[in-house]
UniProtKB/TrEMBL annotation:
The keyword Ion transport does not apply. It comes from Streptomyces griseoruber. It catalyses: heme b + 2 H(+) = protoporphyrin IX + Fe(2+). Residues 226-400 form the Dyp-type peroxidase C-terminal domain. Binds 1 heme b (iron(II)-protoporphyrin IX) group non-covalently per subunit. Belongs to the DyP-type peroxidase family. This is Deferrochelatase. GO terms for cellular component: cell envelope; cytosol. Residues 61-214 form the Dyp-type peroxidase N-terminal domain. It is found in: Cell envelope. Keywords: Heme, Iron, Lyase, Metal-binding, Oxidoreductase, Peroxidase, Signal. Coiled coil: none annotated. Its EC number is 1.11.1.-.
């Protein structure tokens, strides 16, 4: 697949003739305050989504510190080809497609109007939809480094995750050579993106597992209303904000001194599919629920405090409270950027909701980040109500710099 010039390809918007109406709507939305939300008496409406495009090029990949969208489609791929040149060409083709899709454009020559004898370049289901803040973020799993002569390029920080107490991991929902995280405000835009990348990759890579998510469970924009997880608690209150340059540098982005050079400006992502025992939780008293987190359910304030953003006083919480154990003070100052989503995949054979948190967290160092905190959570009161059933870790390379750059260039070319 080759990339064609932007002006020869219709944007999703122009294809259905948004014209003036679209612009007017966008202008109102950008001004804020038009979104309707299901409000309790005490809840402010959330800021309106603009449906705009998020920049694809930059020093870091989008989809990490950029504002969290509402929907997720996360896919892990296995590599099928042994031909390095073929794999590199696929990464270039993926980049070209990602550049277009994040701008709200069709892949290649579009979904119709081309050669009648060939399948169209784009599958078409996102025609007419806005860019929806689509971000596409790629990662390379530990197993990729056993292929294509990459063994000596594997970062020391990309360690295999150890087995943690309580893990019940399903191999078919774990690991992978590559991952692509697609986040958007419209689920169809996210699913379209993964589907088209999988299609371009056919014969070279295949999807190993994928996860749909909704209702972001964390925020990188602290001024926005904090979202709630499926247990009904505000989640993401004390996250790293996308504007906290110093903390991003300290805890999220790989720095020059960290090495390897090809990862500078990148990060590491840990994905955990965490099943919640929803029915058990729903029969638990409010007091117990609040004790489990160390925060109250309504406001989200830490124990003994009045407001959500008040500084937690850890000693006022039960020793096994989630926040007390996850807090940086309990983890040698360490923390991570959480970017997870809720999921509900129907019901299991016993009539229970197959639901939980698809936990995603970005960090500069996996051992000092996720592994340290997850080990400390071994005595977490929350463990009675959850189980980790899927797991993966990936090295997330730096951003694509410009129109000539491509995903994975710093790994596959000698110059960083
Ligand atoms: C289903 C599983 C989980 C649920 C429902 C959950 C929920 C929550 C909630 C409600 C909070 C308080 C609000 C906030 O500051 O965001 C919180 C905080 C936090 N959680 Fe979790 N969490 C889960 C799993 C994990 C895991 C696996 C980790 C990391 C290994 C983790 C790390 C953290 C951290 C670092 C904080 C912030 C602590 C602080 O600085 O006060 N959580 N979580």
């Amino acid at each position: 697949m080759t990339e064609t010039k932007d002006d020869t390809n219709p944007s999703r918007r122009s294809l259905i003739g948004w014209g003036g109406a679209g612009l007017a709507l966008g202008a109102v939305a950008a001004g804020g305050a038009v979104a309707m939300t299901r409000t309790g008496d005490d809840v402010e409406p959330t800021a309106a989504e603009t449906g705009a495009a998020v920049a694809f090029h930059g020093a870091n990949q989008a989809g990490i510190a950029t504002p969290v969208q509402d929907r997720l489609h996360f896919a892990a791929f296995d590599v099928d080809t042994t031909d390095r040149a073929e794999f590199v060409q696929m990464l270039k083709d993926w980049t070209a497609a990602a550049r277009r899709m994040t701008a709200g454009k069709t892949v290649g020559d579009g979904a119709y109007g081309g050669l009648a004898e060939a399948p169209p370049d784009d599958t078409g289901e996102a025609l007419g939809l806005k860019p929806s803040r689509l971000t596409l973020t790629i990662g390379f799993g530990p197993s990729l480094f056993a292929k294509f002569g990459l063994a000596d390029r594997r970062p020391d920080a990309l360690v295999d995750l150890p087995k943690f107490a309580g893990d019940a991991l399903d191999a078919s929902r774990s690991n992978g050579d590559l991952c692509v995280q697609a986040c958007a405000d419209d689920p169809q835009v996210a699913v379209h993106a993964i589907r088209n990348l999988a299609r371009i990759g056919m014969g070279k890579v295949s999807i190993r597992w994928s996860q749909l998510g909704f209702g972001k469970t964390s925020s990188t924009t602290p001024d926005a209303q904090t979202p709630r997880n499926l247990m009904g608690f505000k989640d993401g209150t004390r996250n790293i904000a996308g504007t906290e340059t110093d903390r991003l540098k300290k805890f999220v982005w790989v720095g020059e001194k960290d090495g390897p050079e090809w990862m500078v400006g990148g990060s590491y992502v840990v994905a955990r599919r965490i099943r919640m025992h929803i029915e058990t939780w729903d029969r638990t008293s409010l007091q117990e629920q609040e004790d489990v987190f160390g925060r109250d359910k309504g406001e989200g304030a830490p124990v003994g405090k009045a407001k959500e953003r008040d500084e937690p006083f850890l000693k006022a919480m039960k020793p096994d409270a989630h926040v007390r154990l996850a807090h940086p003070d309990a983890n040698h100052g360490s923390t991570i950027l959480r970017r997870g989503y809720s999921f509900t995949d129907g019901t299991d054979g016993l009539g229970r909701l197959e639901a939980g948190l698809f936990f995603l967290a970005y960090m500069r160092d996996v051992s000092n980040g996720f592994i340290r905190i997850q080990r400390n959570l071994a005595t977490d009161a929350l463990n009675e109500y959850i189980q980790h059933v899927g797991s993966a870790v990936f090295a997330v390379p730096p951003g694509v710099r410009d129109k000539d750059d491509w995903w994975g260039r710093t790994l596959f070319s000698e110059e960083a």
